[in-house]
Amino acid sequence: MSILPVDLQKKKKRGEKITVLTAYDYSLARMIDASGVDAILVGDSLGMVVLGYDSTVPVTMEDMLHHCKAVRRGVKSAMLVGDMPFLSYHTSRRDAVLNAGRFFKEAGCDAVKLEGGTSMAPVIERIARAGMPVMGHIGLTPQTAGALGGYKVQGKDLDSARRLYEDAKALESAGAFALVLECIPSAVGKLITEALTIPTIGIGAGPSCDGQVLVTHDLIGMFGGFSPHFVKKYVDLAPLIMEAFKNFRAEVEEGAFPGEDFSFTGGEEAAEKIKEILCQNPSSG
Ligand code: KIV
User: What is the DSSP annotation of 39-68?
Assistant: First the structure.
């Protein structure tokens, strides 16, 4: 049985921290799930860390569903959250409900996430009213980063901090079960966390949030692109993996791999026999 939205809300009440990581494929999803995190987000960050785009904007519903299905097969306990891609919930509330529904019906997700503040409240309300748990996402919203002036910390002055506070309250009232707060000052993260009954999940929003999320490829040192200030690399896998690839290449080139240890024995007689046949009747080869 997966972790439910209500379980995250109980954790907030008990003052227990919530942990969320992203996953995009079966193998890593299995490991992340086994680590005991509360939720796994198939983030549209996959556009950058897996598909090689320079933003999340080109990611499609088909991309998201393909990766959500792979992750679903690896996840047993954590709540599986699918990230709604750019323009899958902006054109109409009907489109938003239908696209949210695809994450549940086709990919087996337990919840969806979408970006945006007060203007997205009616969309969240419709999806939640259709019985689908929705996570909000405010602060730095990568799908519309251009309109926010780039990948910058949000909510530093009075006006923008107040807007974030109002966005958070509007999304809670609309029925969001949790809220991602991305790239905002810790003091604003604390203010919003204390003002809401639903949990806040921070990414660059300080230690007072009810939980934390990181992009897994950042945490394990597998993404070579820009690394934001809030990322902690718990392990730096890229140099280890590069070393393994170079060792493989060198060993194959010098004939050290595969060697006997990695080969199958037997078949000598059969090979000899075929050679004999070929010698006697060269045209049969
Ligand atoms: O796409 C993503 O991975 C996200 C997280 C950074 C919260 O939205």
Answer: EEEE-TTHHHHTS--SSSTT--HHHHHHHH
Query: CATH no. for residue 126?
Result: 3.20.20.60
Ligand 1, atom 5, residue with closest C-alpha: 43
Q: Are residues 164 and 196 in the same domain?
A: yes
- Dihedral class, residue 175 (left if φ above 0, else alpha if ψ from -120 to 50, else beta): left
User: pLDDT by residue (tens digit) across 163-196?
Assistant: 999 999 999 999 999 999 999 999 999 999 999 9
Q: Classify 202 as helix, strand or coil.
A: strand
Determine the atom of ligand 1 nearest the C-alpha atom of 20. Answer: 7
Q: Which domain holds residue 50?
A: 5-237
Q: Do 96 and 135 fall within a single domain?
A: yes
Domain C-terminal end among 199, 216, 237? 237
Helix (H, G, I), strand (E, B), or coil: what is residue 179? strand
Count of domains forming the chain: 2
Give 258 Cα–ligand 1 centroid separation in angstroms. Answer: 41
User: Does the Cβ of 39 fall within 6 Å of ligand 1?
Assistant: no
Identify whether residues 231 and 248 lie together within a single domain: no
Mutate to test the pocket of ligand 1, among 28, 38, 182, 231 (most ligand atoms within 8 A of CB): 182
> pLDDT per residue over 31-83, tens digit each?
999 999 999 999 999 999 999 999 999 999 999 999 999 999 999 999 999 99
User: What H or E segment, with its residue span, contains residue 19?
Assistant: strand 18-22
Does 215 sit in the ligand 1 pocket, CB within 6 Å? yes
pLDDT digits (tens, 9 = 90+) for 250-281: 999 999 999 999 999 999 999 999 999 999 98
